[in-house]
Structures are given as structure tokens and as C-alpha cells.
């Protein structure tokens, strides 16, 4: 299904109100909910782990899209699957055995996603394309919300769309997506747009949140 999906990243939500924030973005048009897991080792920031994912799961009706920015990955796959992740995405750069990691994610019953940092070429996933459901192109260096979109990645999206051919694989864009950059990656072949600051700007659930208008603007 190539229809465009917006996946707000709760990295920019109110961390003390994840349940309410997830319900608010869903009610206001989010297609998926993107959950950024960081370990302070693979990326220079720490967020949360499987127990937080399990806690927010009942507040999400749609797809819980879990982006693992952790190394190693394999010891934690079952825990995130049990926490209710529908999609589990791991980084090509996070270890020497990304092929095994993709097998393990599917074996755990989740959809398998593979993410590429901005410095990693499209060709790094060539031999994974028959075993993944999603390729995530990082358009910022992972670790923080609110960074500037790296324009060189648009060409990588184009290359991936050509490599993927007619396989049913989503191309997800993560980082710096806003009303100005979204059309560039959609034209290049992306169909899932993660957006943190562009969705959560101007509100929190404690005030009237303008999430719906922000989502529509993308
Ligand atoms: C960055 C995360 C992103 C982040 C995007 O490491 O993977 O999901 O939340 O934030 P924005 O949309 O603000 O660039
Ligand atoms: Zn992410």
C-alpha cells in the first residue's frame, strides 16, 4: 500500500503524558505512531525501552512503529515484540549481522525495518530487500529531534525506490520532515513520513494541541 502515511514521533511529545499524547495524535490524523528508542551508546541520547512501549501500547490503535537506535539489537527484539511493536526497525550500522537481525524480527512476529544513517549508502541494504518490510532513510543524524533535513538523502530515496522495484516495502523518512521537505521525499518515492517537531510544535496535551493542523500541513 503506497498511500502516504504520517508517523508522528513521540520523541517530541510530553514524556510525562505519552498515553494522552498518543491518543491526541491519533484522534487528529496520525497514521502510525513512531517510537524512538535510544541507548546512549549507538546514539548520544537516551530515551526509554520496552516497558515504556508496553505502557503506551494500549493508547495506540494504529501501528506502533518502533525505531531502535541501540546496539546490540538482537538481545532486545523479543522484548519489543512482546511490548506490542508492529514494526521494529534496526540500523544497518548497529552491528555486523543485520541479516540475522532482520530474520529475528520477523521470527518474533513483527514487521522488519532497516534504517540507514546519512553516511550509509543505499547499496548497504541490497541483499536485505527480500526480507524487509520497510527501509528507513535517516535524513538527520539520529539522536535528537528538531535537526535540519540533510538534502543529499533525497537521491538515496530515489535509488532505493528503484532498487525495491515492485516489492511491497515502505520507504520511511526520519528527520527534519516538515511542509517544505516532505514533498521532496514523496516525489523521490517515500511513503511513510516520520515527523516529530513539525507535529508537536505549538502544543502539549495540557493545552489545546494543534496536532491535526500540523499533520495536515505536512
Ligand atoms: C531522530 C529520531 C526521529 C526524530 C525526528 O533520531 O529518529 O524520529 O524524532 O524528529 P524531527 O521530526 O523533529 O526531525
Ligand atoms: Zn526515529
TrEMBL record:
Keyword Transmembrane helix tagged = no
Biological process terms from the Gene Ontology for this record are: pentose catabolic process; pentose-phosphate shunt
Residues involved in substrate binding: 9, 67, 143-146, 174-176, 196-197
Tell me which UniProt keywords the record has, alphabetically.
Answer: Carbohydrate metabolism, Cobalt, Isomerase, Manganese, Metal-binding, Zinc
- Catalyses which reaction? D-ribulose 5-phosphate = D-xylulose 5-phosphate
- One MF term in GO for this entry? metal ion binding
Q: Please give the name of this protein.
A: Ribulose-phosphate 3-epimerase
| UniProt binding sites for a divalent metal cation | 34, 36, 67, 174
Give the protein's biological function: Catalyzes the reversible epimerization of D-ribulose 5-phosphate to D-xylulose 5-phosphate.
List the cofactors. Answer: Co(2+); Fe(2+); Mn(2+); Zn(2+)
Pathway the protein contributes to: Carbohydrate degradation
Amino acid at each position: 500500500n503506497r498511500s502516504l502515511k504520517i508517523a508522528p514521533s513521540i520523541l517530541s511529545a510530553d514524556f510525562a503524558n505519552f498515553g494522552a499524547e498518543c491518543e491526541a495524535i491519533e484522534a487528529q490524523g496520525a497514521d502510525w505512531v513512531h517510537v524512538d528508542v535510544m541507548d546512549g551508546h549507538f546514539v548520544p541520547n537516551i530515551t526509554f525501552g520496552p516497558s515504556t512501549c508496553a505502557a503506551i501500547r494500549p493508547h495506540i490503535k494504529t501501528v506502533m512503529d518502533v525505531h531502535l537506535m541501540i546496539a546490540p539489537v538482537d538481545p532486545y527484539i523479543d522484548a519489543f515484540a512482546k511490548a506490542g511493536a508492529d514494526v521494529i526497525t534496526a540500523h544497518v550500522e548497529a552491528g555486523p549481522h543485520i541479516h540475522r537481525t532482520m530474520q529475528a524480527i520477523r521470527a518474533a512476529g513483527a514487521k522488519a525495518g532497516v534504517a540507514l544513517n546519512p553516511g550509509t549508502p543505499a547499496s548497504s541494504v541490497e541483499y536485505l530487500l527480500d526480507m524487509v518490510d520497510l527501509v528507513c532513510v535517516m535524513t538527520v543524524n539520529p539522536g535528537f529531534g528538531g535537526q535540519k533535513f540533510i538534502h543529499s538523502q533525497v537521491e538515496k530515496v530515489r535509488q532505493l525506490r528503484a532498487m525495491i522495484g515492485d516489492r511491497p516495502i515502505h520507504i520511511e523518512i526520519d528527520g527534519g520532515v516538515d511542509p517544505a521537505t516532505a514533498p521532496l521525499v514523496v516525489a523521490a518515492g517515500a511513503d511513510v513520513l516520520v515527523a516529530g517537531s513539525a507535529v508537536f510544535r505549538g502544543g502539549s496535551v495540557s493545552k489545546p494541541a494543534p496536532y491535526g493542523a500540523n499533520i495536515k500541513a505536512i
